[in-house]
Amino acid sequence: MKKVVEVLPDQSALIQRSLELILEKLQMALAERGEFSIALSGGSTPKPLYEAIAAQDIPWDKVQVFWGDERYVPPDHPESNEGMARKAWLDRVPIPATNIHPMPTDETNPMVAAEKYEQQLQQIFQLKPGEIPSLDVVLLGMGDDGHTASLFPHTEALDVRDRLITIGNKDGQPRITFTVPLINQARCVMFVVAGASKQAALAQIFAPVGDDTTYPSRLIQPNNELWWLLDRAAGQGIV
Ligand code: 6PG
Fold it and tell me: What's the predicted TM-score (pTM) here?
């Protein structure tokens, strides 16, 4: 595994650097395979990054967009990760609708929705049973508690190793989330983390020894590339 940690002077430099890295991975993917797949993170940090991506001249028909996690709400709900990414980016570019793969949140039972999304991935990536796809980029944020995607501390989702998609649990609220094995299979995992409130968790995550179930981002040890892009407020004292 190649691990890179970069601390950028401020949030706008962080967004610019994140954009640069994504574009670099996109060019590589198009050159090697003619297609680029990316899983998006939610929350607030990536919104300006999605706006910046929308302003780029990209062959959108070659880009496949997934989500690494989703709150269990309709896409028009203010909490929806899909809704945020569509407003900030996807509605602003000529990407084919069939290239956008939101996590379903309309099943009564979230586990059924998780299974549906897993089946979609199996179809799209033409997976053999048990095979884990390698997305080109899995974009991740990190909560103040050290969670990532919807892999929250001390939840069952952390231990799921035989699925691609499972149910996350945030204070009893269901989420749909990539599992640790799916994230770790990515060609490039990119954490984009900003703000002083992340410092304490980052110190635990970067410590040589620590508790993975209390700080789930420690579980993200991809086989290929791991990038931590931090602004100074988050990263000072860490590296
Ligand atoms: C979500 C995200 C989650 C997020 C972190 C950081 O659905 O909320 O996927 O993992 O990345 O909570 O959120 P902020 O960027 O808002 O700090």
Answer: 0.98
